[in-house]
Specification:
Helix content: 10-25%
Number of helices: 14
Structural class: alpha+beta
Distance between the termini: 51 Å
Radius of gyration: 27 Å
Mean pLDDT: 96
Strand content: 25-35%
Low-confidence stretches: none
Length: 709
Amino acid sequence: MNNDIVRLRSATSDLVVRCRPYAEIVYWGPTLACFSAEDVQSLQRPIANGRLDVDLPLTLAMEYGRGQFGSPGIEGHREGLDAAPIFTTSAVALSGDLLTVTAEDPQAGLRLTSELRLDADTGVLQVRHTLKNLHALPWQLHRLAVTLPVPERAAEVMAFHGRWLREFHTHRVNLAHGGFIQESRRGRSSHEYFPGFVLGDTGFSEQRGEVWGVHLAWSGNHRLRADIKTDGRRVVQAEALYLPGEIALEEGAEFSTPWVCATRSANGLNGMSQAFHAWLRQARIPFSAGATRPVHLNTWEGIYFDHDPEYIMQMASRAAAIGVERFIIDDGWFRGRDHDQAGLGDWYLDEKKYPAGLMPVIDHVRRLGMAFGIWVEPEMINPDSDLFRAHPDWVLQLPGYQQPTGRYQYVLDLSNPEVFEYLLERLSWLLGSHPIAYVKWDMNRELVQPGHQGRLAADAQTKQFYRLLDTLNQRFPQVEFESCASGGGRVDYGVLARTPRFWVSDNNDALERQTIQRGMSYFFPPEVMGQHIGHRRCHATQRQHSIGFRGLTALFGHMGIELDPVKADDEELEGYRHYIQLHKTLRPLLHGGISWRVDMPDDSVQVNGVVSQDGSQAVFMLAQLRMLRYSLAGNLCFPGLLPEAHYEVRLLDAPEIKTVREGGGAMRDLPAWLREPRVVSGAWLMQAGLALPVIAPESALLIGLTQVR
């Protein structure tokens, strides 16, 4: 078979790759009804005057040596030599949906292997490079990026920004000239700049427009950029960001990029998200399809460092009574951990707090029918700890400098074999000596001067973190890990393969969470997103919300509560019980269905929902974030239904509606469908919709639709 031109196919998109004499994506768009390799000739470009006298392909390596004056896909040198390689294809292999193109530059002594896989069902594309040094002298690698072309109509970027307590906010940039770049040097995917963005035609939205979503599956330093060449062509690059001197390839050594995961949608941001969600569920999330995600109670905002086993058992009893299925002891259980300025690194049980050990608490939790979980932060060390006093040289640092602490802690050097073995031994003790089902793995500071043996080693630190998690997952397959980094500071597909739950944010404020969770939903399905009901007065913002708004905000994700149920009044307890039961009732739909975000003309109204895979059931939440722009909320049209079906429309939960019926507020009378359930056609619900009630700012309601057969 002639592999000069290779077509990779999926249900939604095709990818056509020119493999010889170089690797270049020539088409990434809608599925082609018919195709032959000769069709590619129609794309032969003219050569403009006043420029180089040859055509410049947008190769996967984007080599500077070819005359590409934008951002190269590969940068490095061999003692100043071999710094502008040009790769020529030497082999092409197609096995199922995996295309492998091997290219070499014999002058530079380098071999580049590019792997491309297009998932046939979802249209998600995976790409990575592997570089091999064929020369006797080492080659210093500075950059190695995956380059993907997008069409000229991709004129707008939606990217993510944030900070602690305010993750996953979006912003948009028009692409006309130059480019857009975002990067993180914090040693993790970061609160500030999530390693993903979306390109699309101008004004793309949740339900409209053609978009291309790109994500780097990597938990360390990273860079993403979108550039416009002066000839109008557009390219995207995604890469791990390497610090000076980090990567040197000896003769015969290989180095691979993280996987870049991308997809195209003709149906706006929803189509992109649905493709990523479906692909993650079948290929990436490490729990079986249909596995129930247990409702959590985490003790952190309930007791902080004040650990009393008897009292914790009271909390567990009260938690079980309201429907909690997994009980987690957070920070404060190990030696010296009476506050956040000491103890990290000393992973031994605090026998003053737990004189009889952890087992009485664990046994009590398990007798109540709940699984038991615990918090750790293995990568960190406090200066005020026995471990630091014994091994100050175990810190990730460069010699001769005094780096600042962050949250009163330093980072341990995971590339040091003694450090790695110490952590593996202590965590194996914890998990091997106790029936622990879940571990909340935290990472509460960034990397500063991340040195190992005098050299910068941020890339190695991330890989050793992966190795530690992989080893523990292999030793303790019954244990589920959560990725937390002061909330959503380490959220990406790389760590998701090892930790099937993310703590989305340290902020449990329901109003803030509405925006944060929506932002995360662009790349992640609800079942991996930790969403908790917090205190009536949020500890992060001091804002107060009703149990109804808090409960509905936490409903769709991997639900939990984060508070002290012993101190909760009867009204609050009944609210927790109600929303936990509502979540359990809807859980198979929420965690197995198709997620939708709805375009609304008034951005004070936010609507998201889930429709079952067969279209027979749906649930949609409307959140009123602030005062309406006008006096009425308008109509809600429901996406994803079966046009020919009929649905019973029912109000499932609306705490604020009770207040309306009693008088006052912004609504004198209810829409007719709210008084009693109605049966309406799917076509009408999708095209005409329902008249929405006027509800108070910072409140929500839940609508259920069930097919009538």
